[in-house]
Amino acid sequence: MKKTLRLGVVGHGGRISGVIKSCLRSIEPDLRVVGIVDPDQENARTRLDECDRKDVVFYKTLDEMVRKANLDALAIGTRCNLHAPFAIQAARYDIPLYLEKPVAISMSQALSLEKAFRKTRCKVVVSFPLRVSPLCLMTRKLIEEGAVGRPDHIAALNYVPYGTCYWDFFYRYYNISHGLFLQKATHDLDYMSHLMGSNIVRIAAMGNYGRIFGGKKPAGLRCSKCKEQDTCLESPQNRKRNSSGGTTEDHLCTFSVDCGTPKSGTNEDCSSALVEFASGAHGIYTQVFFSRRDAQQRGATVSGYEGTLSFDWYKNELRRIRHHAPFSDTIKPGEGLSHFGGDTELAHDFINLVRGKIKKSRTPIETGIQSAYACLAATQSARTGRFVKVRQVGQ
Fold first, then answer.
1. Which domain holds residue 177?
2. Over the stretch 331-361, which tens digit does the pLDDT of each residue have?
3. Do both 139 and 48 map to the same domain?
4. Strands (DSSP E) along 252-354, which ranges?
């Protein structure tokens, strides 16, 4: 008889509770959330499945939960500024860990995290679903088979149709997000490196700040208290009327002083990076957060002398073009998959890691730290206007 898998959670928010319900439990029905560390117990409890509500215990600290809850696995789903501090604690325990991204939001956090995991037995699955999504896996397989020859260039795009969430939810607070290279591009720079088979070693970046979102509206202002809700394009009623995306519930003002300033720190309306890989190849990346509706686009084009591979997760297709033969192919994976299928792949990895069926994750802690180093370099470059060398894990 299979043993019940006992999971402890630090920060039982919307994202990690969704992963547990929709991904982990679909693979492992015997999974149970038996312990939670979360100061907001009331909301954390409402996010539990019915099968967990009776026996779950809330603890004040991670150490107390590990000592008392007899855990088989850990998951960290706190707000971004707390990922690294709790992961550093978790490194002390021989318990498999599912860690949300970004794994760190500052250089001091990233360095401390790398140090903590140098000699640990804690095995980690970092939440990088794009790298293991079917489209990305197929693209990497074709590259390895020589579809493009040597990969010499990559162009990656992310036109985000739900970008307002970075201004009307807690992500707006710069001390939590530390900008959208760390918050969003951490996914993309990781899968770009994976496809190219080479780490990013140098980066130049720039961003636009405060041209679209942010502004001088009062702190704490909500749409329901604003005199401009009938005309503002970001009000719930106008988002609903225009089908322009974002939450249609009452929300914090996207034009508030709470969103910060370029001087004090704020998220980018859009940002771009020019990257150099250790292999000598180079690439570009662009992310835009004010796109809406059918403007959505996320994917990459990889080029070499022999051919070009191009995919878009929203279109859900991969195109292969042979440069020296009159043939082109289009490949389409299954539809309707969370994070384009990557969340399910990571859930399989995590359950298999916990059950001892595999020894290593496809997204170990090193991938999370290396992506954080690249994103921190991009943030520094955008601030200084200079090329910045990217620190490498193990330096």
1. 134-208+264-335+369-389
2. 988 765 556 889 999 999 999 999 999 999 9
3. no
4. 270-277, 282-288, 297-303, 307-312, 317-322, 328-331
